[in-house]
Design goal:
The complex is a heterodimer of chains A (116) and B (115). With 116 residues, chain A is mostly beta strands. Chain A contains no helices and twelve strands. The chains are: A mainly beta (116), B mainly beta (115).
């Protein structure tokens, strides 16, 4: 079965500090895509960062970066210089395959609070 | 990225009634996905809607309870039928964004409360 695990239900970080959210997943496939989504209280799901499994280089988007360890099936998110607007639920997710017919598997989420 | 307009943003409904949620996308997309997010939970896929064919439902979801329409490549509706308090959730539609390779864009969600 394809699953996503986020072992940290809740985390907090001081403003301007760095925090890392963990994610592990399970799949027997070799080609897949990994995502981190942010859901603030407005409930809008926002794509934070995406990683293609065939790429060894870790993806970065401004203050957000990932540590992708394919062999370990680990996909952690690092947020640098945390800002109050980063307070949200963060969902790790992946999708297998290269067509539009594949569904996204979401983890249970990590609630991140940025403390002023 | 694609822009999805989802309506209504929230509603309070009486048990036994039905609510239809609409999603309009600003570009043509092959597949649209409908999710349920129960309070404090992650997203659960309800069904996948392909234009011109019947939706494909996930285990635990049936067409009689969650009928879906997909009349064209930019629009879809999800109906929550014969509602009970257990249906109180956030419902979201999503598309694979053609302008963001393998990024999925979501509507703003519909917060449904059944009383």
């Amino acid at each position: 079965a394809q699953t996503v695990t986020q072992s940290q239900p809740e985390m907090s970080v001081q403003e301007a500090e760095t925090v890392t959210l963990s994610c592990t997943y399970d799949t027997s496939e070799n080609n897949y895509y990994l995502f981190w989504y942010k859901q603030p209280p407005s409930r809008q799901m926002i794509l934070v960062i995406r990683q293609e499994a065939y790429k060894q280089q870790n993806a970065t988007e401004n203050r957000f970066s990932v540590n992708f360890q394919k062999a370990a099936k680990s996909f952690s998110l690092k947020i640098s210089d945390s800002q109050l607007g980063d307070t949200a639920m963060y969902f790790c997710a992946f999708v297998v395959g290269l067509t539009s017919y594949d569904k996204v598997i979401f983890g249970p989420g990590t609630s991140l609070s940025v403390i002023p | 990225s694609a822009v999805i307009s989802q309506k209504p943003s929230r509603d309070i409904c009486q048990r036994g009634t039905s609510l239809t949620i609409q999603c309009q996308v600003d570009s043509q997309v092959t597949m649209m996905f409908w999710y349920r997010q129960q309070p404090g939970q992650s997203l659960t896929l309800i069904a996948t809607a392909n234009q011109g064919s019947e939706a494909t439902y996930e285990s635990g979801f049936v067409i009689d309870k969650f009928p879906i329409s997909r009349p064209n490549l930019t629009f879809s509706t999800l109906t929550v039928s014969n509602m009970s308090p257990e249906d109180s959730s956030i419902y979201l539609c999503s598309v694979e964004d053609p302008r963001t390779l393998y990024g999925y864009t979501f509507g703003s969600g519909t917060r449904l409360t059944v009383v």
